[in-house]
Amino acid sequence: MGHRGPGLPPRKAGDVARTLRVTAVAAGLILAVWMLSDIVLLIFLAVLIAVMLRGAADWAARRTGAPERAMLAVVTAAATACLLGFLYDVGPRLVAQSEDLWRQLHQQADLLRQAYGATPWGQAIVAHLSPSEAMQSHIANYAGSVATSTLGGVATSFVLIATALYFAISPDPYIDGFVRLFPLPYRSRAREVLVEVGHTLQWWSLGQLIDMLVVGVLTGIGLLLLGVPLALALAVLAGLFTFVPYFGAIVAAVPAMLVALTVSWQDSLWVLAIFLGCHAIEGYVVSPLVQRRTIDLPPAASILSMTVLGAIFGPLGIILGTPFAAALLVTVREAYVVDVLGDADAAGIAGNRWNEPAPARDPLLHRDGGPDAGRPKG
């Protein structure tokens, strides 16, 4: 009879096989996310918009006693009306001002060419500024690609809005489908983690909305007092770009300074001072007060998340870096720190901070019953 060498006990062999399966599934998921990165970020953005709309609608429904779906329709219609009204009122003036700004920049370039074209360093700059046939051809090709990208962007925006509305109106089928991906003993806990992530995104959105309103109002007042053209449009852009912490302030200041440059360079410097002052107030006064009552996200986590996601996924990764970091921190805290490490004190750290009792039933992420209702646990 042959001698059989020692092998792994059946229990350890099962553990090894289970670990290999989990590793293979995790590697497959990471590869799928990498290959479908644009779609994954688009879905996350749709979820974020749905959470914002549903959060505002639920708040209004609790205050007015109206049905949740009716308030969701009102909130969606109000947001759409505000966006369309802004585009209708400011859009044509913004286009006209952009054309005027382009002419002003060309005139300034001609003046610089006449004044410093005879100097060695001036000749080097003029050589780069002078349009060649290759550059003009490149600009024409780029304009065509921009037109194609614009059409694709319109289609993507339509898909994004439709998906977000479906998520907000009827989230239960999508939540149930996601929860069904987990084994039966873990489905209830997976639903609880989703509820906590949804609460976190709602409170983060509320904090960002307050910051955006403060920056937009303060910037608008400063630009109006200074007499800068398109003060309202620039103030709205400043408020919208505040959605992206840190980087948004820099991006919003550039068009405002360029518009002010059409008046005088002194006004451009004053605009820079206004933006620095507004964001100093937002960063050192408003934001700490808001975060104390909503969610306190470490600044390093926000910056690292935006940097990493921006390097991997591009501009959309920068925009969604902070809410993604907030959702990830809650998931790691609940699924690993609490469940795996057993640190129950870490649960609910970023929960409700408005001294209101947490709702027993989340209208967006939870409903009575579910994919694991009535089934044995464990």
Account of the protein in words:
- The protein has 378 residues and is mainly α.
- It has one domain.
- Helices cover 77% and strands 0% of the residues.
- The chain is built from 13 helices and no strands.
- The protein has helices spanning 10-35, 37-64, 68-116, 120-129, 133-169, 172-179, 187-226, 231-241, 247-261, 265-293, 299-313, 315-319, 321-338.
- α2 (37-64) crosses α3.
- It is globular.
- It starts with 9 loop residues before the first helix and ends in a 40-residue tail after the last helix.
- The model is unreliable at 131-140, 142-151 and 349-378 (pLDDT under 50).
Keyphrases for this structure?
mainly alpha, 378 residues, 13 helices
Oligomer: single chain
Alpha plus pi helix count = 13
How many β-strand runs?
0
Low-confidence stretches: 131-140, 142-151, 349-378
**Alpha-beta classification:** mainly alpha
Overview in brief:
By secondary structure, the chain is mainly α. It has helices at residues 10-35, 37-64, 68-116, 120-129, 133-169, 172-179, 187-226, 231-241, 247-261, 265-293, 299-313, 315-319, 321-338. Helix 2 (37-64) crosses helix 5 (133-169), helix 7 (187-226) packs antiparallel against helix 10 and helix 11 (299-313) crosses helix 13.
